[in-house]
Amino acid sequence: MSEETVPQQGGTGQPKGLLQQMEELMAALNADLSALDADLQAAGDTDRRSSEEEQVG
């Protein structure tokens, strides 16, 4: 049997509904995207500072 046909079980031992699974996946995706955004912004700030220092110096 594949994972798609086996119902996922929550902490209570009851299968999760599709809506609950989707909400959890969306929350996890949102957290991942927020972390990626923070990483990219930090990298952009570092690049911006480097290019400003080159222009001044």
Give a written overview of the molecule.
This protein is an all-alpha fold and 57 residues long. The chain is built from one helix and no strands. It has one helix at 18-56. The longest helix is centred in the middle third of the chain and has 39 residues, at 18-56. The mean pLDDT is 81. Residues 1-20 are annotated as: Disordered.
Topology at a glance:
Layout: H1 18-56
Question: Would you summarize the structure shown here?
Answer:
With 57 residues, the chain is an all-alpha fold. 68% of the residues lie in helices and 0% in strands.
Features:
mainly alpha, single chain, 57 residues
**What average pLDDT do the residues reach?**
81
Decide which structural class fits the backbone.
Answer: mainly alpha
What's the helix-strand series? H
Low-confidence stretches: none
The share of residues in extended strands comes to under 5%
Region (Disordered): 1-20
